[in-house]
Amino acid sequence: MEQPAERVADRAGGRVGTIRKSIASGISLIVAGVVLVVPSAVAEEPPAACGGLVGQLSSTLKGVVDGVVAEPPEGKAVSEALGDSLGLLTAMQGAKCLPVPPVSAPAAGSPAAEPFLGPELCPSHAMASFAGVYSVLSKVVPGAVPPDLGKLKNEVTGVLKTVKDLLANCGLPEPEGGLPTVPAPGSPSPTSTTTPSPTTTSARPT
Question: Do the Cβ atoms of 124 and 165 come closer than 8 Å?
Fold first, then answer.
């Protein structure tokens, strides 16, 4: 028995409406999923204290450069500035500007470390910065065999580049004026001063 055309149309319309609702629900879920997932992948802004710590780190690294290029080089000043640099890198970890190394379990009585939410490449560059500073420090601490000055300058230059990469890959601000650099061979050192030679006049016979 044939059904009235109106009833067939109503049923067809109902099916279309159901399909449209299903599609709309699916799109809503997809959009909701995107909204929920994307923010978790975006790195958080570094804490406000990081800018000041970066500035202090730049100042201590300038002390390293000044000690290395001094005539003669100042080993004590270099080692102390490197020690201060390590202290500031550690302070940056405490302020959550940099990640801490992964451990299997926190030390007794210590809370579990919170997951680092910075850029993906930041942990690698952070560990490289610590390693670079420790490497130079091991060559200038009291009791170390005096290093070749040219090689030492090259290694300090490498540390400065590593720290520059650290700032870029951890979303940290560049210090005002940029990081210090080791002068190229033949360039005047930042701490050197030139004493003008006295003007001489030749006596004319009278």
Answer: no
Q: Is 6 exposed, middle or buried (0-12, 13-18, 19+ CB in 10 A)?
A: exposed
Residue 8 has φ and ψ, to the nearest 5°, of -60, -45
Q: What's the CA gap between 33 and 38, in Å, rounded?
A: 8
- Measure CA 194 to chain center: 37
At what angle are helices 49-69 and 75-94 packed, to 10 degrees? Answer: 170
pTM of the predicted structure, to 2 decimals: 0.67
Sign of CA dihedral 6, 12, 18, 19: negative
What is the model's pLDDT at position 189?
Answer: 55
* pLDDT (0 to 100) of residue 4: 54
pLDDT, tens only, 172-201 = 999 999 999 999 876 665 544 444 444 444
In terms of Cβ atoms closer than 10 Å to its own Cβ (0-12, 13-18, 19+), residue 83 is middle
Domain ranges of the chain: 49-100+119-169
Quickly list H helices, 42-148. 49-69, 75-94, 122-140
